[in-house]
Amino acid sequence: MRLPNLTPVGIRKLRIPGVRALGPGSVSSLLKIALDVAYWLLALITGVLVVIFLVSMFIPLENFNVTVADDSGGMALPLTRPLLLFAVGAFSAYFGGFMLILRNLRMIFRTLTIGDPFQPGNVRRLRQIGLILAIVTGGVWIAQGLVATRLAKGVMESQGLGDLLTPGFSVMIVLVLAEVFREGARLRREAELTI
């Protein structure tokens, strides 16, 4: 008796003839180009924000206001140097964190482009991505909480722990992928030793 084909309908159709996932001229090489462009764009934005941060230490701030608003209205607050430095510093850290994530992704995609993804360096890079993503997520959560409780009391709501579910889940996925790559690198080493 012959068993029926257990391949789900349409799975065979997902493979596009002539398109490879790994190696030179593959989808991963195109994605690496996109990551390169995004990395340099984030590097430029981060550099501009750092320059603005340094310049904002010295520019006069008299007669400047910040308006914090929501659907029901808002409030105007005087722009102080600590507030300006906090805002520009927070944005610099945010974009800088994602620039570091893209740097690691570029290195991972470099190994995909050469067709050798299970390198021990990729495990370290994925762990760094998870750590940086956790730090950026925690920093954004804390910064928004500070703004909601100190700066825009009554206008902006403080974030709850539920707002950390999706980013926390993303961090866990990246860390699990790091372990998958670690296991792949281990199996590859064992296979090379048995040959």
Q: SSE layout and pairings?
A:
Layout: H1 27-55, E1 65-70, E2 73-78, H2 81-113, H3 120-151, H4 165-194
Antiparallel strand pairs: 1-2
Helix pairs in contact: 1-2, 2-3, 3-4
Low-confidence stretches: none
> What's the pLDDT, averaged over the residues?
81
User: How helix-rich are the residues, as a percent range?
Assistant: 55-70%
Major sheet strand order: 1-2
Bulk shape: elongated
> How many individual β-strands?
2
Concise account of the structure shown:
The chain has four helices and two strands, in the order αββααα.
Task: Describe the 3D structure.
Helix 1 (27-55) runs antiparallel to helix 2 (81-113), helix 2 packs antiparallel against helix 3 and helix 3 runs antiparallel to helix 4 (165-194). The chain has helices spanning 27-55, 81-113, 120-151, 165-194; strands at 65-70, 73-78. By secondary structure, it is mainly α. The protein is built from 4 helices and 2 strands, in the order αββααα. The chain is 64% helix and 6% strand. Strands 1-2 form a two-stranded antiparallel ribbon.
Essential attributes:
195 residues; mainly alpha
